[in-house]
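Annex B.
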Amino acid sequence: MGTPGNTPVDRGCLMGIIFFIFGLGTLLPWNFFVTALMYFENRLNKSEWSNSTAIVRKEYYFKNWMTLLSQLPLLLFTLLNSFLYQWVSEKVRIGGSLVFILLFFILTAVLVKVPMEEDQFFSVTMATIWFINSFGAVMQGSLFGLVGLLPRKYSSIFMSGQGLAGTFAALAMVLAIASKAERETAALGYFITPCVGTLVNLMCYVTLPRLEFAQFYLNKKMSYELEVAVELLPREDGQVEDSVPSLLVADSGAPHPDAITCDTQQTLLTLQPLQTSCDKKSSVKDILKKIWVMAFCVTFVFTVTLSVFPAVTADVKTKFSGTWESYFTPVCCFLTFNVMDFTGRSLTFCVKWPPKESPLFPVLVIARLAFIPLLMLCNVPGHRYLPVLISHDAAFTVIMMLFSISSGYCMCLSMTYAPQ
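Solute carrier family 29 member 2: predicted structure tokens.
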């Protein structure tokens, strides 16, 4: 094991690779369902012909329901995760979530070949989206807790992995279209891909406790984790539940949290000065006072982004016809967004401007509101009250590039500043 004077080395950047894969895995569910919009809408919004006119039997508003049933459990279970860690071990929260996500993706892949009534298929799909995102929120919150124990650069690595998840899904969709395979076969191959990705995440998580680098940083800040647990949710008898990630501690030789006394905590504190101690703990209120600006920035970035992506951007149509028509949404909407979002996240490795204390940063975050009317004025058929002022494909693509690179950069920067 390493010591403060002999910090273990992340050999082969293995720890960075694992957390990059973790970041990729946390957003795979959302992105694979979003980019498969055409598959779901083709299966749900079937048309009948009457007097040579196509009439949709029933409009399911799949994009709207999918966005709601993705983001609502994400919010609820992210908040619930603040309390779950007191009663549910980190091994169960992360490992169990990965197993259930894998099972639900397998179910989604199997349903490609199962004929079902539209209403039944819609209900099963919505339930799957709800549960996948619920488990994804628990896993994501737990992984953010783990990456917060590591040096700051690993937070950026983790966030970059999240940015690549969408690119991965968009490329899979483009390849499925380009393969010219029968629709069901292409969809089956598309949904098998996240099954493999989730399985790789599970293997990485099993590997994690064997890394000396991970054990060192976990033990180094164990006392801090215990003090946060005491402050946030103490038990009636004054003892603390097992809040330390048990899987990582398993092979580290560290004492169990129940056996750690105040004297032991003070010994651990000598490894690295911390702002907390046994006599003086930071309250949740004090913490919120310090991070509220960055918390607002993260929330506002997500709010602006999700208000138009994909509900509005996926409805933008090309002005051209032919083969390009089938590629327009996957390429100009999903692939462009995710590539540039990943680019924005990656920029934080070399550029961190404005600085954390600068009032200019929240101003730039709020300025992203301008993208909402810009995207709504693009070529979206069916708008009753808004004219189409931006009809060209190139103009829409440029707006999408600026929209997504600013989303990735501002979100990653605020997530990097908050732990500081």
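The CA atoms of residues 344 and 409 lie 4 Å apart. Strands lie at 47-50, 53-56. Further annotation is deferred to the next reporting cycle.
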